[in-house]
Amino acid sequence: MNWKQLLSTKRWGYEHREVSDQIDARSEFQRDYDRLIFSSPFRRLQNKTQVFPLPGAVFVHNRLTHSLEVASVGRSLGRLFYNIMKKENPNIDQEYPFLQEVGNIVSAACLSHDLGNPAFGHSGEAAISSYFTEGKGQVYKQLVSVEEWADLTHFEGNANALRILTHAFNGKDEKGFALTYATLASIVKYPCSAIEGHLKNNHHRKKYGYFDTETAAFRKIAKELGLKADPTNPNGYLRHPLVYLVEAADDICYNIIDLEDAHHLKILSYTEVEELLLPLCGGEDLRHRLDALADTGSRVELLRAKAINTLIHGCASVFAKNQDRFLAGTFETPLVDALDNNIVAQMKKISAISVARIYNAPTVVQIEVAGFKVMNALLEEFIPPYLKEDKGHFDKKIVAMIPDQFHTAQTDTYAKIRAVLDYVSGMTDIYAVDLYRKIKGISIPSLK
């Protein structure tokens, strides 16, 4: 793979349009970022759970604030990488004109990396999958292909993001978001289909990156950008190199910032957070600065900032030093796992504490269980009526509740199920709970 081809400005849906040489305030990749910022799916992330329940008396991160922070870290990673490359080769802009745009591409991809995640965090994904593996959705197995069934039984937010960005929804722009090919490829962590994914020891196939419906779309993107075929999978590809920076930005943010939220909610004490973050602060002696701050929240903010700074510089350096391996597709670990051994050990310690104390905290588990029940129930309310050819009165009423954009003219079972999943997976936590209550008769819509 080579940077000239990988950093294509070609836009989805506008493949034959020439890039204008007109002076503009934004580059093509900055346009991607702006389109995402102003989009409805992005705004809805403000009411989707990151880890802790929403809303609350104490501010915690939601999917929107998380995505903004990941985009900020991603931009820094991209800029640092470019600066390192520029220092080593002052003429690099002549060889690779768009390399200076890597920060903008990565930040746009980071902004959209959680766009396809359903309500209630990962429990929402699990609820959708379990409806088909353990729930009443099992009856549809014989009505879809093996590839389609793999999609349904392993709902994946990353694959759903690519669908949101490229699919021609009913009544919407048939070109989707019309993002650049480079940005679209940079969000696909696992460039394979569901039936080819879920290999724990394969970095490119740990999960999957596109639904069966988007297979042709991703192949088109891969061909344009020159992505290498995966030697372990004739139907899949190796990652676009910038995926590693997007992944690193996400890893850095959730590992560090979940500790900050846990401190705000008094799940972890200040002393515990300091012991976890101080070793990541680049060896800088922060004791005087920390002791000068009476507010423990401000101390955590300082530790968080210094830790993130260390991780950003480390990851950008690894990425720059290993260019040949990234372009060859032979780098087999996340960037954060390739840092200094002491940093990697500390990150693993943070991960272990997070699993034990944060992700299994009572409030987190409660929202996961509630979300699981709500999402599963909504699927059972909408899928059977939508699939019926001879709909009864109540079936028609239920189907009428689905917005026009999610309806499909296709008649096969998978397309109809996918239409319902598009609707349900796009719901915010609050909307899903409210709709569940109304359908179940727990609350009655106001007649005012």
Features:
single chain; 448 residues; dGTP_triP_hydro_central_sf
Describe the model.
The chain has a domain of 79 residues. It has 21 helices and 2 strands. Strands 1-2 form a two-stranded antiparallel ribbon. Helix 18 packs across helix 21. The relative contact order is 0.13.
Give the beta-strand count.
Answer: 2
List the uncertain runs.
Answer: none
DSSP helical segment count: 21
**CA-based gyration radius:** 23 Å
Order of helices and strands: HHHHHHHHHHHEEHHHHHHHHHH
Alpha-beta classification: mainly alpha
Question: How do the strands of the widest beta sheet line up side by side?
Answer: 1-2
Shape: globular
Terminus-to-terminus distance: 61 Å
Largest sheet: 2 strands, antiparallel
How do you describe this structure in short?
Keywords: Hydrolase. The protein is 56% helix and 2% strand.
Write the layout of secondary structure elements.
Blueprint: H1 3-6, H2 28-37, H3 40-43, H4 63-88, H5 92-95, H6 102-112, H7 121-133, H8 146-153, H9 157-166, H10 181-185, H11 215-225, E1 229-230, E2 233-237, H12 242-264, H13 270-277, H14 287-291, H15 296-321, H16 323-328, H17 341-358, H18 362-387, H19 393-400, H20 413-425, H21 429-440
Antiparallel strand pairs: 1-2
Helix pairs in contact: 2-6, 4-6, 4-12, 4-15, 6-12, 7-18, 12-15, 12-17, 13-15, 18-19, 18-20, 18-21
